[in-house]
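Let's practice the habit of predicting before peeking. Look at the sequence and jot down your guess about where helices and strands might fall. Then scroll down.
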Amino acid sequence: MPATNDGVVSRPRQKSQMESYLHVLHALMLRDMRTRFGGSHWGYMIVVLWPVAHVIMLVLIYVLRHVPAPIGDSRALFFASGAVPALVFQYISREVMKSVITNRPLTYYPQVKLLDVIFSRILVEIVTGFLGLLTILAILVAAGVNPIPVDPFTSMCGYLAAILLGIGVGTINVSICAFFPAWIFGSILFTIVIYITSGVMFLPNFLPDQIYDVLKYNPVVGIIEWVRLGYYSDLPVRVDYIYILLFALSTLTVGLLLERHVVRKIT
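Done guessing? Here is the structure:
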């Protein structure tokens, strides 16, 4: 132990529980980024640009085919405003599930809990998604499109709702994978169906009421409409904000309960 000038032995300061937890969380995030992205900035850039490329390819297909936007004057803005929240939900729900599969050996250390692995991946995906969003906005500006919503608060709330729903569905996917590891492939098919029917490439409210009423049970439909309302204030839809938030919070609650009382007992 180091001694002071007075000859008194000083003890090193012990870390508080919060400091220890933040240290573990920081270490998990760094390990996650280094192992997934090859330990280089280029690897991380590829992961950020992957969903960006998805949005750009979707926009280019419809722009080059001269498919008119169902609303507004910009095809690029219409398709991007639908694809971004849908992909945010899709990527977070999938990566949260994959985090437990790839990082399960870390939970053998007493300092690392399964929930820490999940939470660290959530933070990484939120940062990655936000960087992707900024990149898409920059590309739209470079293309001469104004990407700033008429009501930024409304669009941002819809974007945050997509994050919350992705976290909730992701935690449930973790529990399902604990029983059926093959669900990692089933969840991909599930999110593809959700993506196709959520209204990324069309306006669901233009469909017959019988079909639209069924599609509204898909919360991603409401989230996309929520985001688009910030861009198109005259969009003839009514977003059920309470249903979307309750659905997202319910999936998160169920997922956390399953993780605590079921997954921990079988792992």
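How did you do? The chain has one domain: 17-266.
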